[in-house]
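Tokens for chain A. Residues wanted.
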């Protein structure tokens, strides 16, 4: 983990910024659903000052690409693009669902995570992830937006115990609690920029970066079908 990466995320109610430099992480985070535009840039300034760095010394800007609030995702990408344009840096988009999986491992050491964000309209953004030996995460299901009642019908129990993260579990508990999974609780409700920065290290090392003008959100509203990925039976 050697790249110097600044990460920003406003895709959910949580607003967060993190700067990863080697093994050091400088982070700020606050649940502030209506104040993302007011808080995000001051957070950026704070972590840069704490680390004694400028934007021009960084290798990349990472951002929570979604899924999440449409407005929140757009705010995060817009801020990240402005920073990247100004410093002529590449960008790395990271799934908010996968970031919560990393957050669950960071906090609890769990290696199999089921992420569900409240997508409104009686749906959740859904994805499951398993941690690889190198610290990266492999998707078990294709990320999607889906009605909890449909998840109940489609998800089948396996030998793993899945940690539940995200707001979707509580928002639709009537259905979500009946999904046929070996599961356990966690205290992870939102993605954090420090976990986005961590995952961005893998993407950066693999050359999975884009120019600022090419960065794009992932809303998932055009992907409504749940699907288990090949080889993940």
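Reply:
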């Amino acid at each position: 983990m050697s790249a110097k990466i600044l990460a920003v995320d406003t895709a959910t109610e949580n607003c967060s910024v993190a700067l990863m430099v080697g093994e050091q992480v400088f982070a700020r985070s606050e649940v502030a659903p209506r104040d993302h535009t007011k808080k995000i840039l001051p957070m950026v300034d704070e972590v840069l000052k704490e680390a004694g760095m400028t934007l021009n010394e960084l290798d990349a800007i990472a951002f929570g690409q979604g899924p999440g609030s449409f407005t929140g995702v757009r705010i995060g990408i817009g801020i990240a693009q402005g920073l990247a344009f100004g410093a002529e840096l590449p960008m790395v988009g990271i799934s908010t669902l996968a970031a919560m999986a990393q957050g669950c491992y960071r906090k609890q050491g769990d290696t199999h995570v089921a992420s569900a964000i409240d997508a409104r309209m009686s749906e959740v953004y859904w994805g499951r992830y398993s941690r690889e030996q190198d610290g990266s995460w492999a998707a078990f299901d294709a990320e999607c937006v889906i009605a909890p009642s449909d998840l109940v019908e489609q998800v089948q129990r396996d030998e793993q115990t899945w940690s539940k993260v995200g707001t979707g579990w509580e928002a639709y508990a009537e259905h979500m609690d009946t999904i046929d999974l070996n599961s356990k609780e966690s205290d992870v409700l939102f993605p954090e920029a420090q976990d986005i920065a961590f995952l961005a290290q893998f993407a950066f090392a693999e050359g999975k970066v884009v120019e600022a003008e090419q960065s794009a959100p992932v809303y998932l509203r055009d992907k409504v079908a749940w699907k288990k990925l090949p080889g993940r039976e």
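The CA atoms of residues 148 and 175 lie 6 Å apart. The radius of gyration is 17 Å.
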